[in-house]
Amino acid sequence: MILKWFLAYLATGLFFGAMDAVWLRFAGPALYRPALGDLLAEKFRVGPAVAFYFIYIAALTWFAVIPGLLMSQNAANHGVPLAVMNGALLGFAAYATYDLTNQATLKRWPMEVTLIDLAWGAAASGLAAGLAVLALSRLGLLAPAAGAVGGAG
């Protein structure tokens, strides 16, 4: 079970990390830098970013990917829509926490940044969770353990 959880975490991290890297590469100079300007740190801080990804990927795996994998064990690939929905809801809530807190506490936080972030958080999280479930199920990593209820024995 721990190996399956680790593989799910790894797959989720690869999909989410790849998408977020592309997003930040283009959205940073095109959206965030013009909209936030002097609110942004002059130098990127690796520590908080690593902590975010470690924590967020764990939450996305636990709340979206694992339920999707469990459902897919019983009905092939039916867990993908569940993972997408749970991932999108988690992404929306997590990104809303960040952006709406900034709107509540900072002198200036643009509404367009909040709206774009909410859409991105939901889309990227849902897609990453769905892709992780799909990839792991296609690789045959969901077979129930021998003797498990409903297992092939």
Query: What structural class do helix, strand and pairing data support?
Result: mainly alpha
Radius of gyration: 18 Å
Q: Total domains, how many?
A: 1
Tally of DSSP β-strands? 0
Given as residue ranges, the uncertain stretches (5+ residues, pLDDT < 50) are 144-153
Enumerate how many helices there are, as a single number.
4
User: How many angstroms separate the termini?
Assistant: 17 Å
Query: Share of helix among residues?
Result: over 70%
**Average pLDDT level:** 90
Assembly form of the protein: single chain
Could you say which overall geometry the principal axes of the C-alpha atoms support?
Answer: elongated
Largest sheet: none
H/E series, N to C? HHHH
Strand content: under 5%
Search tags:
single chain; 153 residues; mainly alpha; 0% strand; disordered C terminus
Structure description:
With 153 residues, the chain is an all-alpha fold. It has one domain.
Give a quick rundown of the structure.
The chain is mostly helical and 153 residues long. It is built from four helices and no strands.
List the helices and strands and how they pair.
Blueprint lengths: L1 H35 L9 H29 L4 H27 L5 H28 L15
Helix pairs in contact: 1-2, 1-4, 2-3, 2-4, 3-4
